């Protein structure tokens, strides 16, 4: 699905009659003022300088909607510290905003295997990551993530070795990532799947207006959410920060 489809909203009388808000807002909170309050009183005053710099660089990118919101980045950073994450993975890097939030949270000898099919966007953020003094924690691999996961599973050395994995790439593959990541993450470790509320569209009535991009991936996200709740190997918690992140804790 082409990213410029993102801007085209399909109109539907049915959706308007149902009163459902058009599904394309970045924040899931009901009031913009409430969201501004969170940012202005809790996030921006404590935002590390490199996070601010990279957020501002990313905001100028035509696909800026890809990046985590600043409040979710703050949440991710805190979460990584709470679980004492050291060996981590990120699928879907873009300009490296969530990657920097991760790298800043890890100890000096922490590691992030970071994968993205696009190196150019990563390189936009890389100078900021280097200046922040955390680039040594990152092993960036350009290319699709799935073959890398398959290789790690095949060589047997990586089973149960990851403390934390953040998945924020092709939503139609989340279920396939999960099949592999459940082996690679430690028992007691966490996988965070981003955008599991998918612009609020997961709860939109049939026929609600939404962009073609949102509509295209919606069924994949709905199926994925169902699969997680039925998976006895994990405990889950869906957190309505950003576009929704589902945390999965491996229990066996
Ligand atoms: N996590 C980033 C952040 O918050 O700043 C945003 C990631 S963006 C939503 C999704 C990224 O996934 C894009 O940069 C895209 O190139 C990448 N991607 C798409 N398909 C992929 C694949 N099969 N393997 C690895 N990366 C992929
Ligand atoms: Ca995301």
UniProtKB/TrEMBL annotation:
Keywords attached to this entry: Lignin biosynthesis, Metal-binding, Methyltransferase, S-adenosyl-L-methionine, Transferase
Catalysed conversion reaction: (E)-caffeoyl-CoA + S-adenosyl-L-methionine = (E)-feruloyl-CoA + S-adenosyl-L-homocysteine + H(+)
Query: What EC number(s) does the entry state?
Result: 2.1.1.104
Top enzyme category: transferase
Q: In which pathway does it act?
A: Aromatic compound metabolism; phenylpropanoid biosynthesis
Gene3D superfamilies tied to this protein: Vaccinia Virus protein VP39 (3.40.50.150)
Q: According to the UniProt record, where is the region Disordered?
A: 1-22
One short Pfam name that applies is: Methyltransf_3
- On whether Methyltransferase is a keyword of this UniProt record, the answer is yes
MF terms from GO for this chain are: caffeoyl-CoA O-methyltransferase activity; metal ion binding
UniProt keyword annotation of Metal-binding present: yes
Mark the transmembrane ranges.
none
Q: Which GO terms describe its biological process?
A: circadian rhythm; lignin biosynthetic process; methylation
Q: Which family does it belong to?
A: Belongs to the class I-like SAM-binding methyltransferase superfamily. Cation-dependent O-methyltransferase family.
Q: What is the protein name stated in its UniProt record?
A: Caffeoyl-CoA O-methyltransferase
Q: State the species of origin.
A: Centaurea solstitialis
């Amino acid at each position: 699905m082409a990213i410029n489809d993102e801007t085209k909203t399909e109109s539907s009388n049915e959706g308007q009659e149902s009163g459902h808000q058009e599904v394309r807002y970045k924040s899931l909170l009901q009031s913009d003022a409430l969201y501004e309050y969170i940012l202005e009183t809790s996030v921006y005053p404590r935002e590390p300088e490199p996070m601010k710099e990279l957020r501002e660089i990313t905001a100028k990118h035509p696909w800026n909607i890809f990046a985590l919101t600043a409040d979710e980045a703050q949440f991710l950073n805190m979460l990584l510290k709470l679980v004492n994450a050291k060996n981590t993975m990120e699928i879907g890097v873009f300009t490296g905003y969530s990657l920097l939030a991760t790298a800043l949270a890890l100890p000096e000898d922490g590691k992030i295997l970071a994968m993205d099919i696009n190196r150019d966007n990563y390189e936009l953020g890389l100078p900021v990551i280097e200046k922040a003094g955390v680039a040594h924690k990152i092993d960036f691999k350009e290319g699709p993530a799935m073959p890398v996961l398959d290789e790690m599973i095949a060589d047997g050395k990586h089973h149960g070795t990851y403390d934390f994995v953040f998945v924020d790439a092709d939503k139609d593959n989340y279920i396939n990532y999960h099949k592999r990541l459940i082996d690679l993450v430690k028992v007691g470790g966490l996988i965070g799947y981003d955008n599991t509320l998918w612009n609020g569209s997961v709860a939109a009535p049939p026929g609600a207006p939404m962009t073609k991009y949102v509509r295209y991936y919606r069924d994949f996200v709905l199926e994925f959410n169902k699969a997680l709740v039925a998976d006895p190997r994990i405990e889950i918690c869906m957190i309505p920060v950003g576009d929704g992140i589902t945390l999965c804790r491996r229990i066996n």
